[in-house]
Known about the structure:
It is built from 5 helices and 14 strands. It has helices at 14-26, 42-53, 128-131, 133-141, 244-247, and strands spanning 2-7, 31-36, 62-66, 85-89, 95-99, 114-118, 148-151, 165-168, 174-179, 190-195, 198-204, 216-227, 230-239, 257-262.
Amino acid sequence: MLVHIVADYGPGDLAFAEVIQRIKLHLPDAEPVLTPVPPFATLAAGFCVAQLALNEAPAGTLIYHNVAPRQDDEQSRPSNAGEALAFARLPTGVRVVGVNAGYAFSFLRDAAEEMRWAAVPSEGSQFRSRDLFPQAAAAIALGQLEALGAAMKDGDIPDIPENRVAYIDGYGNLKTTVRADHKRQPNGTIVAVTVESMRQIAIACDDSFGVPLGRLAFAPGSSGWTVSGRHMRWMELFLRGGNAWEFFGRPAIGSRITLDWLV
């Protein structure tokens, strides 16, 4: 069974090893694949989860994610309480189990065939994704319905925030929440892109490599999926031959993007 683990523990962190060990205790046939995201970056986690869950995957694929900043309540948290564990089943057959924190489920909300709370306590350990949640995830993966609770409501999950940096890949490309079909300008149009306070000039194009070496492209990226027959694709900032993340001063996940079209 392919098990994607999306979490903010940090690449190579001991926490990944501990979580894998606990998951394989309950799912011996699990084949874990790790995808780290920055600390507390629920938007990045949600983006990664959707990219994996809403595209073709092997039968039985499970996504287990944990980015839990415990920011749903600013008061002290008795027993290390935090955001609750939730479940989604997608049209691809992929099942997702993870903490409903921030935007972690936002990209799935309108695509899921089923979304329910998991019947597991949300308190009792600082390291819930090792001590409490793997057994619940395994029970759900094995079809044990008693591991599921009440249906979630749309109001339990926030909308996808518009015009934000959603994910930064290993090449420094900035994947955004700007929809590829949103106010597209003609190919070759110049656009001033501001990410937080850093402004750079880009060329709008249909393909990332449709700009000369050293120029910044604003183009539909490689990330996207199909929901109800509609193909969703997201715009990307791509510096050909360079690193767009560095070019924009290393912006954080969630940084606001402003576009000024220059005709």
